[in-house]
Amino acid sequence: MSASTPKTLCTSGQQSIQDICHPLSAEESVRTPSPDVGNTTGSIGEKDLSLPNGTPVDTSSPASSSSLLNRLQLDDDLDGETRDLFVTVDDPKKHVSTMETYITYRVSTKTTRVEFDLPEYSVRRRYQDFDWLRIKLEETQPTHLIPPLPEKFVMKGVVDRFSEEFVETRRKALDKFLKRVADHPVLSFNEHFNVFLSAKDLNAYKKQGLALLTKMGESVKYVTGSYKLRGRPLEFAAMGDYLDVFTQKLGTIDRIAQRIIKEQSEYLVELREYGPVYSSWAGFEGPLQEPLEGVAGCVANCAGALDELTEDMSDDFLPVLREYVLYIESMKTVLKKRDHVQAEYEAKLEAVAFRKEERTAPSPVPSVCVCLCVSVHVQKSHGQWPLFVRVCVCVGVAVPSVCVGGCVCVSVCVCVQVAVPSVCVCVCVCVCHAECPLYPQQPPTDVEKCQDRVECFNADLKADWDRWQNNKRQDFRQLLTGMADRNIQYYEKCLAAWESIIPLLQDRPESTKTETS
Amino acid sequence: MADAQREDAAETDTPNANDAQEKTTNSTMVEDSSTTLLKRMEITVAEAEKRTGKKAVNMQETYTVYLIETRPSSAVNEGQSVAPDALWRRYSEFELLRNYLLVTYPFIVVPPLPEKRAEFVWHKLSADNMDPDFVERRRVGLETFLLRVASHPVMSNDKIFYHFLMQERGWKEVVYDTGFQAKADSRLRALNATFRVKNPDKRFMEMKHYSDELQSITSQLLRARARVADRLYGVYKVHGNYGRVFSEWSAIEKEMGDGLQSAGHHMDAYAASIDDILEEEEHYADQIKEYLFFAEALRAVCRKHELSQYELETASLDLTSKKLQREELATGIVRTFSFKGMTTKLFGQETADQREARLKLLEEQIVEGEETVREKTAECEEHVHSGWEDMQRFKEQKDRDLREAFINYAYMQMSMCKKGIQMWSNAKECFSKM
User: Fold this and answer.
1) Interface of A with B in 464-483 (CB under 8 A)
2) What is the pTM of this model?
3) A174-204: per-residue pLDDT in tens?
4) How close, in Å, is residue B293 to chain A by CA atoms?
5) A68: phi then psi, degrees, rounded to nearest 5
6) CB contact under 8 A, B399 and A480
7) ipTM of the complex
């Protein structure tokens, strides 16, 4: 189908509009090419679309192809009615072998996607496997934000890796990780993710990818490359600033929460000494014995409630906070990568501009040029999954720095879809490179590719940023209301305890007046 | 009754003590079977003021005086607005009054004064005597003291007490004129002396043991409560930091900003709420403290009994020995060793005249001794009787008061919980709007 072989489109001549699939009808077929990251197998004509370190770009991303895909993704309803991939992590189990002891978790998947052979899967995975998956996603989707994993290393002496609380905290984080990936319109179609969810023997599959290990070193180089960034677009600079401040604030909140837990623990210690004094007193009183015991019991109940509150905060609040710090780190990394891609593009641009002056005759420039930038937002009822399809076509003579050595003819077809209730707008733009009848087409230059890369990256990043902001808002709303709830519950328990002894305190025994004299 | 008037006039939620009960005990004690002073008069310690004055050695000192106001109850009941009689007294005068009462009524558990210096403080609470909160709590304590004395069946009829309330000048002289000071000194010496009493009243010994336990447990309780208050203060105050960070965070957020900002304000309010909560709890601490000091007063009554009993035993022993000596002199049979006997042996028999003289002396002493024994016995019996009665009265008062204190404490805790729920619910609402 047309969308799967974009390059074919380019070389085979301009396609007529009728041959271009109608967005809606293309729904199913659109999905087919997506998980095929398969760059190790070298898909046709996509060798050019690779990052400097050689790792291929995932062409399934709607905006990541310079070959101007038309891609439509009808958004899934958040209610899950049209969501087609459900993942859960549960049932932790301890495994003891001669070499080591470790925990595995059951990963259950339910899906209707055609990329999966079966509708249901249930596999066992350990933390190592999640770590592997994350690395793979980072490698193969460098322009996207990969959700964080819980901390890998724990000090063996300090934390009990097999305690219920630790395992449960980790399980929740792993579950969240997979759900975030599954909800991502691009990451969820990643081949490695698919294998992670479905393969019985993950280790065998992992071995295949060993060759890529060598690329790891290069990717590191890539991130710390030596290109210097000239001008960061305002919006990305703003993102960077925001993340810096946000990290700071999260750090502060973490410290405050820890301090509160500490103070509460010390308060608890004192309460546990305070209550028994009333009991001792009750031991040598007569009519006051019951009231005193009542007060002692009450204090003990409040102490118990406080203990629960502190534990809950420790187990549920702090880990989520810390996970967000990791998330921010991931985001910062992606921002840095984007900067580098842009820097590389700028450098190349400069070099070419230099060289251009040395050229004898400038290539003839078409007189018909269109600059078209289209961004497409597809909005869900609960948030945004903006979808960018950006097309930048060379502008005419007037802006020589942009149009370098090539000419492109453009045909644009825009169809606007009226929204289905949960979907606001979907626009599909398909633009294709075509042979200019007047001037022979030249293959996209290095610079153009760089420019493409920058724009794709920017588009992906913006999409992920918006999604991340939205999720962040929900996550923190949930986190903070949870904290408020727990405190309310604590006070309600204490209130009930004190209310219950009022009748006991007020119930006076008959005073024996006759004994006074 | 004392309880009802003990708190500020505004708080009258305490159950009424049985006035009838007061009356029945009253009628056995006082010939004048009219009601206690408190029935006839309203007493308040209305205000406190700072004064500066000169001490004896020409030094400046700053001290606090308290305004005592009295009004006849009949006037109040009839709704007449009568200007109260008022005078100013300082703490040392209260102390003087109390010492007088201790000496004059050794068989009564005399109510304690509020503490001279702040003890059992937790870190935020000031230990400064000039601190307004301390002064205020002391004012309440002094009022309680006066009301307790005024409602006591015996003490309320004391003239010195009446003068204390009514006559500002010259009261001190009147007190000293009673000559109680001398008794006070000897009493203090006696109470602190160690002596072995052979047959104390068993009930008194049990009471003394109880007073020791009460003193120990209340002191323990006050210390533990102070530590708890300290920690609780810390917990609340740290939440104030959330207020600041939420405010800072809201500055970089778009949609989340408003919710965060408002939630931050609620966190600030939460942190601030602990001050009032703990200030109120100090009243509970003061009630417990009163009984810590009451325990001492109770113990003093028991010690007084021991002292009386000891003096009685000593007097009896003395009498017995004198009678024995007389017998020996009369019959010539020496049963016991005596110095006189020794010297007689050494230096020869005494003359008949000498013997006669000695016998006479002895007879006189015996008569005196018998009188002493009679007195002491009466005193002891009187003390046992009255003391036991007052201790019963005290016991019932204590049970009532402490029960009420615990109820108030429970209500305080409930109020604190309700406030907490309120504040966190407010914050939750803000969070949910983020």
Assistant:
1) 473, 476-477, 480-481
2) 0.72
3) 999 999 999 898 899 999 999 999 888 888 8
4) 16
5) 60, 60
6) no
7) 0.83
